[in-house]
Write a structure and sequence with these properties.
single chain, alpha+beta, Alpha-Beta Plaits, 4-stranded antiparallel β-sheet, 4 helices, 29% strand, globular, oxidoreductase, Antibiotic biosynthesis monooxygenase, monooxygenase activity
Length: 115
């Protein structure tokens, strides 16, 4: 049974703050990569492409964690909590809005064998 957790965290910077937000998010990557259960952790920014013209926030974090417990432990790290407090919750922060969601690749009602 897959226990992986896929997190997509998208960010809407305040006007003129996109570069600052991207750099602040990039600064989180090295320590997240040190976490044993971090399988993938990369911040990306939207680019123009004629084959993908959907709407979304301009900065997106793509994360894959070995399991739910690891993801939740990551979210409780001081560095992660400080990022959200400084950049999103503080009225003077650089982020206007954020949308963080988690997903599983396991189908509903999956009858995974017990090992």
């Amino acid at each position: 049974m897959s226990q992986k957790i896929y997190c997509t965290a998208s960010f809407k910077p305040k006007p003129g703050k996109e570069d600052a937000v991207f750099q602040a998010l990039q600064a989180l990557e090295p320590n997240a990569h040190r976490e044993d259960a971090c399988l993938h952790y990369t911040v990306t920014r939207r680019i123009d492409n004629p084959f993908a013209q959907g709407e979304s926030y301009p900065i997106v974090f793509h994360e894959i964690w070995a399991n739910r417990e690891a993801f939740e432990a990551h979210c409780q790290r001081r560095e992660i909590q400080a990022f959200f407090a400084t950049h999103l919750e503080d009225p003077n922060g650089d982020i206007e809005d954020a949308n963080v969601c988690v997903y599983t690749d396991e189908p509903a009602e999956f009858d995974a064998p017990r090992l």
